[in-house]
Specification:
The complex is a heterodimer of chains A (329) and B (314).
Chain A lengths: L9 H6 L2 H21 L6 H32 L12 H16 L1 H6 L2 H26 L4 H25 L2 H11 L8 H17 L4 H7 L3 H6 L4 H23 L5 H13 L3 H26 L6 H18 L5
Chain B lengths: L2 H22 L7 H33 L11 H15 L5 H25 L7 H24 L2 H8 L14 H13 L1 H7 L3 H6 L4 H22 L6 H13 L3 H25 L8 H18 L10
Helix pairs in contact in B: 1-2, 1-12, 2-7, 2-10, 2-11, 2-12, 3-4, 3-5, 3-6, 3-10, 4-10, 7-10, 11-12, 11-13, 12-13
The chains are: A mainly alpha (329), B mainly alpha (314).
Chain lengths: 329, 314
């Protein structure tokens, strides 16, 4: 994407600079966090604050994971409509988790530390995602629209597999996996918050050195190689980072299909396509939508649990709009 | 003997064999009462549902001129659920006929909406149409989930969307004859749908008013989807894979294809239900789960298989 030509007054120009816009997004996100934490605090604030603090941290981790992973996926696949969820990545993770419960059994499961278990699942997930990516995009070189369809079918199929496996579980184990299947931004798993947070931040930091290579990658495969980018290495790095982030957010809040689509496209239109700007912007917009949305829905309208549904609806509408206006690339 | 009639005879034999197996499997001791009240109704319901859903998929594919669509991937099912939910919210005690009418009307609106969207897709890509359909279905589904959450009706919602024949006994499936009748009408009007499948201009050129046939197709889709929603729940992928497999063997002429599609649909549904009943005997696994897994795998093979080249024209 070419930089937009400077126009209008110098002040307005300064405000439209990506850094200024990111700063504004940061302020808005901080305001949303403050509102969420402080609005309608009950008399004995300690307990409520602690609970809300955990929810807010969880939503921040998810916002970073979803925003960054979607932007990365859209860069390495050269389009604006894919999200890890549409590709069925979170369904893969859920299937791994349910299979794990089935194979290991709930008794042993309760004995093992969730962090260790989650680590094993994560490695499996990253392996499968890398394989799938390699097969779809490098070996078969499928057409983008076909890939979207294949991803949706894989997702539907794996959700059926998950349901199927759940039927095979005894009631104890069933209770363990039940909360994996529905998205909920408010029921954050306390044990997983720290490890997922650390991993998401680590994955985020790990892509800092390749930000410029990613910018080149967005110009297309041959252009990027011509510019001296180690194409395969950068792509694989990005894909592993995506897998880690998707596993983190799925473990924390469950599957989300379209949320990334919303935030990534909002980020492109605000700060352009340079990754040093678009990834932080996507994460911040994610935080604003999640935390602000939760504040408005829960405190303003009295809907406590419906945020995922609202986001999915808006994301689906945006997807159709992007397709109908022909702006898929 | 023509190739199509060989296939038809093989199909009849297969369905008959599977039906016998389906009647013989079950937890209860087989006696006259169980046979008449439960086993036979269930087997008949399976056959009717399979026939109706497979033929509906074929019509949907001809009407949209796209191989990768069926009612559950284009919003028809979700719109039917939304209408059913609306009826439940207004008055939970409505008779089943009212619910069925609501579901049919809902599916009708859903299909018309999808056809409107599909016409506006700028790139004539055969894969983009089902993708938009899935998103559209997802949006209607999100709206329905939202209302259901507010009204505490999520469980009912699950029952409409998940196909399950374990609750089928005498007196609870007869409405499916209506769906099968819709499939029969589709067979009678088969040649018109074949012509529609060539495109609207071609249809006009051949002296057919495409709007009438289109309307008939939409009504058939809506009736089958609505009736299935209130009786057995929806079977994923069936309407997608059966017509695709059949068209590989006998081509796109609908008159020849309909009987084979219907028979194969019935056979697949019977087989999946039998699998679901046997895998974890005596506990049942809903047929839609079995079908979601097997059907998804078959659909992926169709999408990615060696002859997937021809899907990229259009």
């Amino acid at each position: 994407m070419p930089e937009r030509a400077p126009r209008a007054t110098p002040v307005r120009h300064a405000l439209s600079h990506p850094a200024a816009r990111i700063a504004m997004l940061g302020i808005a996100a901080a305001a949303a966090i403050a509102l969420f934490l402080l609005l309608d605090l009950p008399g004995r604030a300690d307990y409520a604050l602690g609970l809300r603090w955990r929810t807010v941290t969880g939503m921040l981790v998810v916002a970073i994971a979803v925003g960054a992973s979607t932007v990365l996926l859209q860069t390495v696949t050269a389009n604006r409509i894919l999200t890890p969820g549409i590709m069925g990545f979170d369904a893969i993770f859920m299937t791994i988790q349910v299979t794990g419960v089935l194979v290991i059994g709930p008794r042993l499961l309760l004995g093992t530390s969730p962090t260790v278990l989650w680590g094993i699942e994560l490695v499996l997930m990253a392996g499968i995602v890398v394989l799938l990516y390699w097969w779809l995009f490098i070996k078969r070189r499928l057409d983008l629209h076909l890939i979207v369809l294949v991803g949706l079918v894989i997702g539907t199929m794996l959700r059926a597999v998950t349901t199927f496996l759940q039927r095979l579980l005894d009631p104890d184990a069933f209770a363990v996996v039940q909360n994996l299947v529905f998205a909920s931004f408010t029921a954050i798993d306390r044990d997983l918050l720290l490890p997922t947070g650390v991993l998401v931040v680590a994955a985020g930091v790990s892509i800092v050195p390749i930000l410029r290579s990613l910018d080149a990658l967005a110009l297309g495969r041959s252009t990027a190689i011509g510019l001296g980018v180690a194409h395969r290495r950068v792509v694989m790095h990005a894909v592993v980072a995506i897998a880690v982030m998707v596993a983190a957010s799925t473990a924390l809040v469950g599957p989300v299909l379209f949320f990334g689509l919303l935030v990534a496209n909002a980020a492109y239109s605000l700060v352009g396509h340079r990754h040093a700007a678009s990834i932080p912007a996507a994460a911040l917009i994610g935080a604003i939508v999640l935390i602000g949305g939760q504040t408005v829905l829960a405190r303003g309208l009295g809907f406590a649990t419906e945020l995922p549904v609202v986001i999915e609806f808006l994301g689906g509408a945006l997807f159709i709009l992007l397709v109908l206006t022909g702006r898929t690339r | 003997m023509s190739r199509a009639s060989v296939w038809t005879i093989a199909g009849v034999a297969l369905v008959a064999a599977l039906a016998v197996v389906s009647v013989l499997i079950g937890v209860a001791e087989l006696d006259g009462f169980v046979l008449v009240a439960s086993r036979i109704p269930r087997t008949v319901a399976l056959i009717l549902a399979g026939v109706a859903m497979a033929v509906t998929g074929l019509i949907m594919q001809l009407v949209t001129r796209n191989r990768f669509v069926e009612p559950s991937t284009t919003g028809a099912t979700d719109a039917a659920s939304l209408a059913l939910l609306a009826v439940l919210v207004v008055d939970p005690a409505m008779p089943i006929a009212v619910k069925a009418i609501a579901a049919v009307l809902g599916a009708l609106v859903g299909v018309v909406g999808f056809l409107g969207l599909a016409r506006r897709i700028p790139v004539r890509s055969s894969v983009l149409v089902p993708v938009v359909g899935l998103m559209y279905a997802g949006m209607i589904g999100a709206l329905t989930t939202f209302i259901a959450q507010r009204q505490d009706l999520l469980q009912e919602l699950l029952a409409w969307g998940v196909g399950d024949f374990s609750g089928i006994v005498r007196g609870r499936y007869e409405m499916l004859y209506l769906a099968a009748a819709a499939a029969l009408i589709a067979w009678i009007a088969a040649d018109r749908f074949t012509v529609i499948g060539l495109g609207e201009d071609a249809a006009r050129g051949l002296g057919l008013d495409p709007r009438l046939t289109l309307a008939l197709g939409v009504v058939i889709i809506a009736v089958v989807t609505g009736v299935m929603s209130v009786t057995t729940g929806i079977l994923p992928f069936l309407g997608l894979i059966v017509p695709n497999i059949v068209s590989r063997f006998v081509g796109d002429g609908m008159r020849r294809a309909v009987p084979i599609v219907a028979l194969l649909g019935a056979a697949v549904v019977l087989a999946c239900d039998i699998i679901g009943r046997l895998v974890r005997f005596p506990v049942e696994i809903p047929i839609s789960v079995v079908m979601g897994v097997l059907g998804g795998a078959v659909f992926l093979v169709i999408l990615l298989g060696p002859s997937s080249r021809r899907t990229e024209d259009a």
